Amino acid sequence: MKDIKEKTIRGGAARLIGQALKSLLRLGTIIVLARLLDPSDFGIVAMVTVVTGVFEIFATGGLSAAAVQKPEISNAEISTLFWFNIAIGVLLGLLCIAAAPVLSTFYSEPETALVMIAIAPTFVINATAVQHMALLQRHLRYTTLAAIEVESEIVTGIVAIVMALAGFGYWAVVASVITGPLVLTIGAWVTSGWLPGLPRNVRDVYPMLRFGGTVTLNGLVVYVAYNLDKVLLGRYFGPAVLGIYGRAYELINLPTRILNTSIGAVAFSSLARLQREPARLKTYFLKGYSLVVSITLPATIACAVFADDIILVTLGPNWTAAAPVFRLLAPTILVFSIINPLGWLLQSIGMQERSLKIALVLSPLVICSYLVGLPYGPSGVALAFSTMMVLWLVPHICWALHGTNISVWEFFSAAGRVLAAGTVAAIAAAIMQQVAAPLPSPLLRLAIGGTTMLSIYVLVLLFIMKQREFYFDLLREFRRVS
Q: Can you say how many angstroms the Cα of residue 475 is from the centroid of all Cα atoms in its chain?
């Protein structure tokens, strides 16, 4: 148990540092490409990736999560899962090629067919690394995973920027979509040291296939619900509008997505090892959740407060139309940062079917919100989406926690202090923003407002909300195990 705790802290720290570097690299790439390419270039690729994203959900078949979640697993079972992933990858690649002309007709954009065919091989590339990545995750080798992901981000950014400078247009973005999985796959094979054997008795992996199928179906339902907005905007408003909406969505969701991906992966692996010890599992989850929301919530609130200056600094003056969408999506991302960690909990304790039921109820509500907002363009969709997610917040938490050993009050206590501190800091930052408004530089205004918000947030959280001991203990523990 002590070994798990130390590996969790080391892994969490490694993932946080790695994801911070990855975020900076991704942000740097976005900033450069936004000044080299047009919104329509991003829109054309987004028209394709929003569809291939559905295929990507099936690419792993949920078998990576199944390999991590199972308490004990043999080499023969992992090898069988590997060949299942290869078969799925080949099938999805062929399906991607076959669907290319259909997609081109749907959008009335011939370029989308070529982009989809170019992306098709990535499904086979990804499939070959699913179980290698799962083994690294299962053994809590998150320093290795972080290094692979950072290297992938560096190579991807270089390739995209060089191609954009050479005048390849949207193909620079396509190249980044292909390069990332290739570098990750090479890194996973080299570092894991595992070579697959021949597939064995399929009956031995039936329970994992069922687990993976449920996880995949859940991912599919959630993906469709959270990405149909992009399909509708691309279909009815064209690639330029979709490019603006897509960049705003990606930018505001970047901190939450990366932090939940990094800490969530560590938390899922560790919680799965503790599923037979509910008391320790509860303690680990609440501490991990407190850490996640203490970073994601204030970051999202800051995005809403400084939306105009953030867009000017990151994307440039040609993207000012993205600022209203960016601000209106903030409540949605705020809700994501609160409820997404519940997915770690439900999957780690084998309650993935409840997660699927929640998704099946939420998805139609979210899709209806898109339809309500669609006549009013991207801002209308963003407003309707955020309104629905805020209304759904409390029912989602109550349903997810029902029957577990974590109470709704304990969950809200972990998030409530952070939300209160973030709100106080946001009010102070908004006042400071008005004071700094006459300054000509958006970067300077952002630096002043951000420094004000961060300082007040830390002071309120640590001293007024009395969380100093928790974070200082966490820091001391990390220093000890390091």
A: 25
